[in-house]
Design brief:
The chain is of the alpha+beta class. The chain contains 31 helices and 20 strands. The strands form six sheets. It has a five-stranded mixed beta sheet. Strands 12-14-13-15 form a four-stranded mixed beta sheet. It has a four-stranded antiparallel beta sheet with strand order 18-19-17-20, with helices on one face.
């Protein structure tokens, strides 16, 4: 071995040792009981197991487990068991050691967590959707055994996102997409607000680097002005809090880059019109823990005397914490500059919970090690309920889980005044099933705040709900249209499946008796004739209709068997199929595909990788990408590449479900082709305005307008203009020129 290699190895060993020492120092600074010996043992074991292995970035592999352990310790606030599991989390996956080895050396608890992490390694999603759902189920099952599994998994994902720069672009899209789809909402649901924000920002940075940089630069340019506003706004508040004798700190919170971009997209407004960039956080130490809640409201009363509060924007998460444990009092005040500024009032304990979620609860428990039993247990129970009756369709299963796990909560009261937490947008039917399956399945309506409402009625926070039932009521298939919670949907589907099976069996028996009476053999030919006669897709549907008495067999059915065989078969087919959905479908599908997916000359407008040159490229109909948009390619079953915008909701799903089919694509256009876009405009109505708009578009910019739709209401106009452009630069020029028109206040590109 040459001297150079030896020196390199020595330098690496020193770097590893220093990183581990930093981890130990961080751990010793926490309130956890000091179990340095077992952490050192875990580090030595992992270091030996990963020796000589490097990450894609070129650094020794052990640096990754150390970094994950640091996040677990500093940013999530967990203790020695979790730190050890973080150090060992890749040992079973990447080396010859087994879970049994870990258990023999480190005991059952650490082994169980490492086993849970190994089961969900390699990302949640496999190559196919079904594998993806299976892995997600695994993830949730391991969570329900020990919440620390998912907390360490989130720390692992956070470090991977922080070092994503060394990966290939298509890998970056897959990982960033999966992070936005699952990990960021999961971190939010566990109350890890800081980590959720960073995961969103990092995903956005890799998916839309130019837009990220643009917002970052604009934030930097407006920082001095924000500091001035913050100083002026908080000076009288500080004076008031000093007078009250409170120990406190006041922080400025700037909206995250991803949140700003999201708001710009959903509200169709430019950066300059986002008014809630700045929020103020008052974090105080209570005079004593019993007075914590009172202190929150005392501060609110004191600052409301200085600035006028917005009457509809008081959010009391102090008396009713969110399901992830979040507590704070949010109030929006009118500053002297004429802008609304949100103020969040929290104690130091509440702030810890807000940033570290459930993990922070452990810091405030005696001994620092036991898990919080309240909200966390409740949440894990709902996960177990979802898993009890999983959906047969994998993607449905994932969407159901996402629907339930990541929705915002509302608070609903029972007739006796008991408080229940429900997902936002839930209906009276969802509430009925949340009480009990029997109540849900026999539910006929509800009284909300003593007024009679249908089952589909959407509940609001604070509603008092009484469910009305009848023994005669049966579950209806149309209930699936307005049931939103996982529990209600899965129970309804389960009951309908059972009923369908029973009806199918009964239908078969009734049909057998009918055919026997007509002296007709019950074979495939006979059943198919009746299936076609009544326009059913398959024989199961026929049996179910007969069994549920929706179809009563009679003369028409007898005539089918009495007619001459050769002639009647053709007649029957042309009668039941001529113009029916079944016969038309394939052609309809082709023509629909032609209309919605525009073929493009790939050599003209896309830089292609070698593997992609032979493939046919189509533009996605869901998001209509044009040259200059951030895009990616998805290889479909027909080996065609569909081009999607990276932020398109369908693309986000594809990235997380079929990451191995995603390819990185780049535009290479020379303004040779035209693409259809829709521009939204809004402003104050004035004579000659429409003429001015068309002049700018048609004459100045030489662009063809395809469709123009303008409406005026009480002096305000808004409209959509469909026009042909070459690329994003054309759109930018058009929008900028239209913004110069005096009475136009808002211009943006939208998906029509």
């Amino acid at each position: 071995m040459d001297e150079n290699t030896t020196m390199k190895e020595k330098a690496q060993d020193e770097m590893i040792e220093q990183a581990f020492q930093e981890l130990l120092n961080d751990y010793l600074a926490t309130k956890h009981r000091k179990r340095v010996e077992i952490i050192t043992k875990a580090f030595n074991f992992a270091n030996q197991a990963h020796k000589g292995i490097k990450r894609r970035s070129g650094e020794p592999y052990i640096m990754h487990p150390i970094a994950v352990a640091k996040i677990v310790c500093n940013e999530i606030g967990l203790g020695s068991t979790s730190i050890c599991a973080a150090l060992l989390h890749d040992v079973v996956e990447d080396t010859d050691y087994t879970v049994e080895d870990i258990e023999n050396i480190f005991g059952p608890k650490i082994a169980q967590i490492v086993d849970g992490l190994t089961k969900i390694s390699g990302g949640i999603f496999g190559d196919q959707a079904s594998a993806q759902a299976e892995n997600f189920k695994k993830l949730l099952l391991t969570m329900s055994n020990d919440i620390r599994v998912i907390l360490i998994k989130i720390a692992d994902r956070l470090h991977n996102m922080r070092t994503l720069g060394s990966m290939l672009p298509n890998k970056q899209y897959k990982i960033a997409g999966e992070t936005l789809y699952i990990y960021a909402p999961l971190a939010n649901r566990l109350g890890l607000y800081k980590i959720k924000t960073e995961l969103e920002n990092l995903s956005f940075k890799y998916e839309h680097p130019e837009e990220y940089k643009e917002i970052e630069d604009k934030l930097a340019a407006t920082a001095a002005e924000r500091d001035k506003v913050f100083k002026e706004f908080t000076t009288p508040i500080r004076a008031q809090l000093d007078k009250m004798g409170l120990k406190y700190r006041i922080l400025a919170r700037v909206k995250s880059i991803y949140s700003i971009w999201n708001k710009m997209q959903t509200k169709h407004v430019p950066f300059e019109e986002i008014y809630d960039l700045l929020a103020v956080r008052i974090i105080f130490t209570p005079r004593n823990m019993d007075e914590e809640l009172n202190d929150c409201f005392d501060i609110y009363v004191a600052i409301s005397k200085i600035y006028k509060p917005h009457p509809d924007r008081l959010r009391d998460w102090v008396s009713h914490p969110k399901a992830n444990g979040y507590q704070a009092l949010h109030v929006t005040l009118m500053g002297n500059n004429g802008q609304w500024i949100e103020v969040q009032i929290r104690s130091e304990r509440m702030n810890d919970v807000a940033e570290q979620g459930f993990a922070a609860h452990w810091k405030y428990k005696e001994g620092g090690g036991s898990e919080d039993e309240g909200e966390l247990e409740k949440w894990l129970r709902t996960i177990k309920e979802i898993l009890d009756d999983p959906q047969p369709d994998a993607i449905d299963f994932l969407d159901t889980i996402k629907l339930n796990l990541f929705a915002s909560e509302i608070f609903v009261f029972t007739p006796k005044g008991e408080l229940k937490t429900m997902p936002q947008n839930c209906t009276a039917l969802d509430f009925a099933f949340s009480l009990h399956t029997d109540i849900g399945s026999h539910c006929i309506g509800a009284k909300v705040n003593h007024k009679l409402v249908p089952l589909s009625h959407k509940l609001q926070s604070g509603d008092q709900v009484e469910i009305l039932t009848s023994k005669a009521q049966r579950v209806q298939a149309e209930w699936m249209n307005f049931a939103t919670t996982a529990r209600a949907r899965s129970k309804i589907a389960s009951i309908l499946r059972k009923e369908a099976k029973a009806n199918q069996k009964a239908g078969e028996a009734i049909l057998a008796d009918f055919l026997k009476a007509e002296d007709v053999r019950m074979d495939d030919s006979a059943i198919d004739k009746l299936t076609h006669l009544h326009n059913f897709h398959n024989r199961e549907e026929l049996f179910i209709a007969i069994g549920s008495k929706k179809l009563i067999l009679g003369d028409a059915d007898r005539n089918v068997f009495k007619a001459k065989q050769g002639k009647s078969w053709k007649k029957l087919l042309s009668f039941s199929f001529g113009g029916s959905k079944e016969e038309k479908e394939p052609n309809e599908e082709k023509s629909a595909e032609k209309n919605t997916q525009e073929k493009i000359d790939t050599k003209k407008i896309l830089k292609l990788t070698e593997e992609a040159i032979s493939k046919e490229y189509l533009m996605a109909p869901c998001c209509h990408p044009i040259p200059g948009d951030d895009v990616l390619g998805y290889i479909n079953e027909n080996n065609q590449v569909i081009i999607h915008k990276r932020q398109c909701p369908i693309a986000i799903k594809l990235k997380s479900s079929y990451g191995n089919r995603i390819i990185a694509t780049q535009w290479d256009t020379h303004k040779e082709l035209s693409f259809l876009v829709t521009i939204y405009i809004k402003g104050i109505d004035a004579v000659g305005l429409l003429n001015e708009v068309t002049q700018i578009i048609s004459r100045q910019l030489n662009v063809n307008i395809r469709k123009l739709n303008i409406e005026t209401n009480d002096g305000i106009f808004e409209g959509k203009i469909q026009l042909y452009v070459h690329d994003v630069d054309d759109v930018r020029t058009i929008c900028n020129n239209l913004k110069q028109v005096k009475n136009i206040k808002q211009v943006s590109r939208i998906e029509d």
